Structure formats: structure tokens, C-alpha cells
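Sequence in, structure out. Go.
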Amino acid sequence: MNTGHESGWYHRLLLPLWNYDEQRPRAFWRILGAVVITVLVPSVLTAVVVRPLDPPFALLNLLSNGIAVLTAVGVAAVWAGYIDRRGFAAYGFHFSRRWWRMLVLGVGVGVLGWGGALATDLVLGWASVGAVLSPGTGELPFLLSILLFGLSYVFVGLWEELVFRGIVMRNAIEGLTTSWVSHRTALFGGWILSSVL
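Output:
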């Protein structure tokens, strides 16, 4: 009578959830868990804690995205130590000269992408400019509002890249790489999945 997990009913029951070779959850569950937590926790905390304080919109946006950053860093720390079982640096935190060049390139692509989208919208008549540097509702001084929105967008970039490129894309590539799927195809699939999410 064999009572080992490798051949028992318990082993077969957990096989869709647990990768026994790697001693960690399967890639699908690592991805799903990270995405659900990093979307759900900031949404709930913002609704329950921040919104009742009725802060100005720029501050609400900053606080909401600040909570998302803290949640993403917490998830990455837990995932690195207990779920993914890899170093935290594997999620993109190795500050080399190449890393800084890629950061500048990413910011440039983001600015050109949003600027190109706005230019396209204006040219095709899908958008119009009603005011330039409008002071808004006067809830906060104009310069402070701009600074809060700018920092908020930095926070968005931090938590999205950490979760969707660091955790989701890395795990999707690992999960898709099999004997019948090449690493190159898995890279493409991971990129598509992280972008869609």
C-alpha cells in the first residue's frame, strides 16, 4: 500500500493547483492571486477608508494609487518569498545602467503614445480642447493639483509594471513554456496576456 503524495488521491486532487516539481502553485494560480489581490484590496480600502473622507479629486487619486503601490509591493514581497520562490529583484528591481536606460525609454514611449493618441483624437475631431491649464474647481491650488496628479501617474506606472510585467508576465511565460511551446512563443504569449490584463 502506497501512502505517498506522489501516487495517492491527494496528489491527483491537487495536481491542477500545485506544481510538485517546483513546489509552488501552478502559474495560473500565481497570476490569478496576484491580480485579484492587487485590484481588490486597493479598491476596497479606497471605498471604505479614503472616499468617506471626501478629499479633493487629485488627492483621492493619489491616495488610491498610493494604496495600490503599497499593495503591489506587499504582494510582490509575499510572492517572492512564499509563492513564486524567487528573489524580489526578479520582478525588475535590479538598478543597473541598462535598467535606467529602459526607464527613460519607457517614459518616452508613454509620453509619445499618449501624445500621439491625443494628436490623433484632435486631428480626427474625436476630442477638443476646452481650456488650457484651467484652474479647475478651486479645491486645491493649481500647481499642487498638477503635482499630485503627476505623482499619482508615477504610482500607477509603479504598481502596474510590478504586477503585470514583473509577476504576471514572468509567470505566464513560465507557465506557457512547455515541450511543445517554444520559449519565444511563450514570451509572446506572456506579453499578450499581461497586456490584455
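Check: The first helix runs from residue 9 to 14. The longest strand covers residues 18-19.
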